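User
Please review the sequence:
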Amino acid sequence: MNTNPACTAFQIHASDNVATLLCEASEGSAVAIAGSSNEIALAAREKVGMGHKIALNRIDEGKPIYKYGVAIGMAIRQIEPGDWVHLHNCRSNFDERSGSLDLYTGVPKGAENE
């Protein structure tokens, strides 16, 4: 991992296990975490877009994903530190449709044919 951060992510609440990227992170790039009370060093395990969530620590399958200090979703498979946290590895606690949305566009699957 390159020790000079290529990108910064913001951890909103100290109990959050994800942070929001303030720029696009490329695979392997160092990410500095702002807003956290602890120093966290991690590398993006894949390309993660600006505004998307990145895991700060391992989140086991079935465990909650915390943002804003509240559980916003549930891991549907194990998520490693530096992973992109999105529709492919979590489901929303607030939107039942989250499992049926396209990973990149957010459009409900099959809606493009309507």
The longest strand covers residues 70-75. The chain has a mean pLDDT of 84.
